Amino acid sequence: MTIRIVSIVIVAAALTGCAGDKCLNESDCNDSGADAREEVPPDLEHRIAARSSWEGTPEGVAVLAMLNDESTTLEVLDTEVPLDRRAAGNLIAHRDGGDRLWGTTDDDVFSNMDEVDAVRFVGPKSIDRLVLFANTTGWVPGGEDLLGVYDGVSFTVVEAEATLEVVNDVPAHVLDIDFGLDARAVDSIMRARPVETVDALSRLYYVGGSALRTLKAESLALVNQD
């Protein structure tokens, strides 16, 4: 399976400024913590990808879980991650809703990484710091941990990796004839390869719950044969 490998440090250096109009000026996108950044741990490097690929990755799932957890306070985001205090405050305010209390009916928890990135004063550097913090503090799922549920089909990290390996490797006739997928789903997959996440796979035309169940089962069978 081909995965784009890009260091967080390189990504942060290349992506200056913030998306859209979230920052008033260039200085608003700067981190409030020390300028020195930790190197990405070796076991994480194979998963570092372009910004559009965070959604559906173990790291993206980890950031969402961490941000939505009660233990993640303004102080944690401000001093431990660390983020610009305005970004930290806006993330907490978004999550906790109008009453500024966690765990109440008006909470607006983060459901995807685009929602996180849309928060005012949260730019590329902030996302990189959140990913690194989630990784180093044990939030990233692995192995048999649940990665997510896509079109009603649950995938552990291992199941997702096996499915993507097969989806990106087997020829079209295997997907069509051996797996019995709709020809339109096969065409959609072949055009999109390499598919980097199950989330991305689930968003392809004609790839719904039935196709995902088939791909998961057939992929696990092939991997277990090896």
Quick recap:
46% of the residues lie in helices and 4% in strands.
What can you see in these coordinates?
With 226 residues, the protein is mainly α. The protein has 2 domains: 8-136, no CATH class; 146-225. Helix content is 46%, strand content 4%. It is built from 11 helices and 2 strands, in the order H-H-H-H-H-H-E-E-H-H-H-H-H. The chain has helices at 8-14, 58-68, 74-80, 85-96, 113-117, 124-136, 157-167, 172-178, 183-192, 198-202, 209-225; strands at residues 146-150, 153-156. Strands 1-2 form a two-stranded antiparallel ribbon. A hairpin with a 2-residue loop joins strand 1 (146-150) and strand 2 (153-156). The longest helix has 17 residues, at 209-225. It is elongated, with a radius of gyration of 19 Å.
Query: Main sheet, how many strands, which sense, barrel?
Result: 2 strands, antiparallel
> Looking at the structure, what is the overall shape?
elongated
Gyration radius over CA: 19 Å
Q: Please tally the β strands and state the result.
A: 2
Whole-number count of domains: 2
N- and C-termini, Cα separation = 16 Å
Spans of 5+ residues with little confidence (pLDDT < 50)? 1-29, 31-40, 42-52
Q: What structural class do you assign from the helix and strand content? A: mainly alpha
Helix content: 40-55%
Q: Strand order, biggest sheet?
A: 1-2
- Average of pLDDT: 83
Query: Tally the helices: what do you get?
Result: 11
Strand residue content: under 5%
Q: What letter string, H or E per element, gives the SSE order? A: HHHHHHEEHHHHH
